[in-house]
């Protein structure tokens, strides 16, 4: 059983997953909102994510490969359990990418490709939420093998988390459009952001109530003494950030709505982590029990610590280069 490198790999995977959610979440959210704006604004909406959307998926690859390499037992159980929604997600991401490219190459079919881009973004987002819900509710495991069916993911709780992520990514996308656009489109994005914020908060509240009612372990984690007092700042901070996001969406500041949306995701992410830690296969295996041999983790860590800063630098540099406002006819300026 590997011990020394498990905390490091936990941080790397946790960071990679959160960066993916924040970055690809914003462009999936923009894709969802893209289908709701008027035809005249769609080029601007598309242009706001043009330099970033495909690079953001690098973090999804890091999460999948990192899970396989560092925690192979967890990978072997989780992936078969959520194979169908992951397949749907990947197909939707491919479909979305094709629609993005062909939108500019086949103007005669612009309406079709616009609809395909929105649909691909929506389906991929919902599928990711279903995967998250399936992970939180746990899997049927005997020994070291998943023994459930291919449709165990189709539960009311997983559907709820799918809807929650649609609203959440919509909030990120609206915050991004507030940052990157001007005029009537920006005003529309503020209104859309408030709608998504209400939906996100309602879903967060529903999930927060549902999980402790469904799991005695999670209930004890949050409501056992003295955990209730120690963890109280997290829901209070979440409520405060949600209130700040509402006000930021109604003001003139461009950056604050997006930062507030990211902060709301971060607090929700921490809530899930607190509920499940140290389990990586909820109810069955901890991070340490599912880890690969220590020599394997050490070998992989060398390459990861070399490549990860490069990816971080490239990602940050690309967002810095394209930091201005975007217009459909002129691009970034």
Short description:
The chain is mainly α. The chain has helices at 6-34, 42-49, 58-70, 72-81, 83-105, 110-137, 156-180, 183-214, 216-223, 227-231, 233-249, 256-276, 294-321, and strands at residues 141-142, 145-146, 279-281, 285-286, 326-327, 331-332.
Spell out the blueprint of helices and strands:
Elements (H helix, E strand, L loop, with lengths): L5 H29 L7 H8 L8 H13 L1 H10 L1 H23 L4 H28 L3 E2 L2 E2 L9 H25 L2 H32 L1 H8 L3 H5 L1 H17 L6 H21 L2 E3 L3 E2 L7 H28 L4 E2 L3 E2 L1
Descriptive labels:
single chain; 333 residues; mainly alpha; two-stranded antiparallel ribbon; 13 helices; 74% helix
How would you describe this protein?
A two-stranded antiparallel sheet has the order 1-2. The protein has 333 residues and is mainly alpha-helical. It has one domain. It is globular. The protein has 13 helices and 6 strands. It has helices spanning 6-34, 42-49, 58-70, 72-81, 83-105, 110-137, 156-180, 183-214, 216-223, 227-231, 233-249, 256-276, 294-321; strands at residues 141-142, 145-146, 279-281, 285-286, 326-327, 331-332. The longest helix is centred in the middle third of the chain and has 32 residues, at 183-214. Helix 7 (156-180) packs antiparallel against helix 8 (183-214) and helix 11 (233-249) packs antiparallel against helix 12 (256-276). 40% of the residues are buried.
